[in-house]
Amino acid sequence: MSRNIILDTGPLGKVAHPRPNPEAAAWLRKIVTSGTLVIIPEIADYELRRNMLLEGMTSSLKRLDELKGLLRYMPLTTGIMMKAAEFWAVARKRGKPRAAPDALDGDAILAAQAHEAGAVIATENVGHFLWFVQAKHWREIE
Prior knowledge:
Blueprint: E1 4-7, H1 9-16, H2 22-33, E2 38-41, H3 42-55, H4 58-70, E3 72-74, H5 78-93, H6 106-117, E4 119-123, E5 135-137
Parallel strand pairs: 1-2, 1-4, 2-3, 4-5
Helix pairs in contact: 1-4, 3-4, 5-6
């Protein structure tokens, strides 16, 4: 089995749409059938879900819930949030903040979830994560 993969909001959104992006859907099928564990992190579910709720995207919400049943869902824990706080502080100290000083900073939380899972982040924003964990553009993960 390959290394675990955790989905960022971008690729998750592409496959959660009722008419998924064909390239992203084919990529996900290939990854899953290879035996790789694919994880939906709670923070990505939250970020995607809130926008779907705001826009009244009920079909997309249903599809997101279906994906949560097909893939591994990773809830947030106290340990993950403590690691996210550490990542957030390190980024600030290095002068590389990813969000406003008072923001929750979903990227730090996702990085902490990836760290906990020993997973590479499948994303469209590789630079947001490289200080802390391995991240690759989803198209580059085989």
